[in-house]
Predict the 3D structure of the following.
Amino acid sequence: MRRAIYPGSFDPVTNGHLDIIERGCKLFDEIIISILINPEKQPFFTIEERLEMLTDVVADISKGGCTVRVDSFRGLLVHYAVAQQANAIVRGIRAISDYEYELQMALMNRRLEPGIETVFMMPAETYSYVSSRLVKEVFHLGGQVTGLVPPLVETRMKEKLDQTR
Ligand code: PNS
């Protein structure tokens, strides 16, 4: 059983994340998408909202044979990964600029838990510039995010903005 953790903030989930999950499904029997509960960050969506959206948008991927679960965690990622009996951590790398930070994390995680491998995956070029941070910035400044996030997420972003107005 090859089980991987795909950790992140997913605030919100983008089409780039979905692309990585689909690719990860070719390598692993099960992927647990794990949202970090980070009390120090002020997120756009609550953990519950992110869990709900992710569960909805990955439903179709799960039908392809690989099991996709959505969960949240706090504390050290490797502790969580061991508790979930995962063998690997999946991270998406879009550009060289991502690599330095990701390498540091991967090596620190390896030091903490040598039994867990980090697997870097590249999204489709179409999503190589897409990040949750940029999506939120563009959205809040009135730009179009269609095609960058799943339609459900775009709808939820609009609803959320209406609520906060
Ligand atoms: O999508 P993000 O926000 O870049 O994801 C970062 C994440 C959640 C993978 C990273 O912050 C993390 O693993 N946090 C958990 C705490 C931890 O294990 N820290 C040590 C990392 S070497």
Q: What stands out?
A: The CA atoms of residues 32 and 69 lie 5 Å apart. The helical segments are 15-27, 47-57, 59-62, 77-83, 96-112, 132-140, 151-164. The chain has a mean pLDDT of 96.
